[in-house]
# Entry
Amino acid sequence: MCYRKFMAHLTSIVIPNRNYAPLLPGLFDSIAAQTSGLSGVEAVFADDASSDGSFEAASRLGQSLPLARFQAASFAPMGHPGLTRNAGAALARGDLLVFLDADDQLEPGFLSSMVRTVESGADVAYCDYTEHGPGGERAVGLPDFDPDLLATQNIATMGAIMRREVFEALGGFRDNTAYEDWDFWVRAAHRGFRFAHVSTPLYRYRHHGMNFSVKAQAQDGPAKAAIVANTPEFFPPEVRRWASGVLDGKGWAQPFGRGLIPREEDVRRLREIWSEARKTRRAP
# Structure
């Protein structure tokens, strides 16, 4: 994958989009409200063949901001947010990358706090957030980084900032899993990149029924298994066996809890339960 020559001390906000025009004003307003200012910030809007006027709306909104640079690009249908992120990143010029979806909104201190954390020595910085949905809002506090915990659940979110070399070293996001962000963090951790957790809610995530992450729940089992298959060395042997079983349609390899990859002991128990059930069915 080839990227443009980057500019030091420039933060690139990459916004992948497909038919989220009504949500774009809130996102761009939150970018405009950053307390650190926008002179060292560019935004790249990567549109995945939207049909709702998203490209035109983003072009107007982006060009009205005092950014160092703004670019909007429309691409042929890609069908996966990871691919759209990659296309946007290929146009970005900053040495720091932030990927934001249209359903995100930044708190005013997001950029200042997150950039400072990366400049203090982290390769990736992620933060707590506030979730907004039909039932109201709730603060979501994430745990400090732990690779063992990451192997069982996604403890970082797309509301993160990373050094460009992280993205380039991994070759961007993969499209063989619906949990492409979790897969990305696993691969980054396996490569030894340093994570830092900012324990302050610095962005807002809006539930609206069209979220790709909501749709991904239907693919939960295969999506998690693909994460394991993509970086098998990060996971214990029994978990790798489970992932192979899920992808091969083995009866014992159940999907496990939504958004959770089983631990070794969980896989052993799944196999024991399956074996006991088969014995029971065979008994006269």
User: Anything to note?
Assistant: The two ends are 60 Å apart (CA to CA). Residues 236-282 form one domain. The chain has two domains: 7-217, 236-282. The chain has a mean pLDDT of 93.
